[in-house]
Amino acid sequence: MDTSNLKKVTPTLPKSFDKPDEPWHRYVTIDLIWRVMGYTVLHPWVAWILVLSLRAQITPWEHLEMRLAIAWAIITTVFTIGGLISDRIAFGKAREIDLSEEVIVVTGGVEGLGALIAEVYGMRNANIAVLDTKKVDYEEAEEKGILYYECDVGDAEQVEAVAKEIVEDV
Fold first, then answer.
1. pTM for the full model?
2. 150-167 pLDDT, tens per residue?
3. Among 59, 75, 80, 121, which is 20 to 30 Å from 40 by CA?
4. pLDDT score, position 14
5. How far, in Å, CA of 81 to CA of 89, rounded?
6. What residue numbers bound the domain in which 60 lies?
7. Is the domain of 155 the same as that of 126?
8. From CA 113, how far away is CA 150, in angstroms rounded?
9. Is 44 within 8 Å of 73 (Cβ atoms)?
10. Tell me, what CATH number does 115's domain have?
11. Largest Cα–Cα distance in the chain?
12. Among 91, 109, 129, where does a domain finish?
């Protein structure tokens, strides 16, 4: 094989490699620690599994470790239920959504993931408006029950014009 015609290229590392490696502990934050603990030792499911595991080992109810495990499970359960009640008071009851009364706008919904999202919500009787630069057959759109609008979402004027059309149509 003749390699005389090949151009020599000197490899260069990306700029991120110019910096020295950062220490591992830079990424450990209080939020991260709290989140991990919330899914482990502070989670009631884990606490009750510990109680069940001790009981499976035939640990008597009156032993100190069994009493501590039960107390820990009760405390984590009470705090979790309290947090759920607090969220319910703060945010209220989750509203029931009637999709037939909703208008969902999907950008780039002619192909790919956008099309899948539009079709799924279309099957659930939502009013779907798809904005895309590609054209769609009228018959195909009618069959799916989706309104398609030819629009470049990077152009604010086109988006405003299509928004007015959507309000009129739906």
1. 0.50
2. 988 888 899 999 999 999
3. 59
4. 65
5. 12
6. 24-91
7. yes
8. 18
9. yes
10. 3.40.50
11. 85
12. 91
